[in-house]
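Supplementary Text 2. Reproducibility record for the structural model of the 155-residue chain.

All settings were left at their defaults, and a single model was retained for analysis rather than an ensemble. We include the record here because the model underlies the residue-level annotations in Supplementary Table 4.
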Amino acid sequence: MSSHAAEVVEAAYHAAEGSVLDVQGFKDLFAEDGVFNNVVAGESFRGEHLGDQVVTMGRLVPDIHRELHRFHVMGDVVAVELTIEGTFAGPFETPVGVIQPTGAKLSVPTADFWYVEDGKIKEFNCYFGISALLTQLGVQPDFASAVTGSAGAGS
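Retained model, structure tokens:
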């Protein structure tokens, strides 16, 4: 069983590579009730939306590559430490506007947990290093606004 779970996960990574970007192939690896959780962002994707993050990342980083550092298979659970790499070549939409592509080389630490049942992905929990991505894009936190905002909160 464990080797089959690893094959399913490897196929998912392959489908999401910039040189492939097979969104339908990625979605087809999921169970009918499967879910993709972008845990850090607090987002969940199901059904026709299972490939949304693949599309988003493909636009942001068309040459996206996932460098797999540690790949642990425990029965039907696969835990992976990886780095998402590529070139910032697509626009990045934010709540206050669009950050235009800079050509910056990205290397974002990530941890993924895959739960496979009956040869299909039942649940995929992705812990994407958004703070590292923002730093690499040149986005700095606005601590001054946070301090000012918190000063009035205690009243």
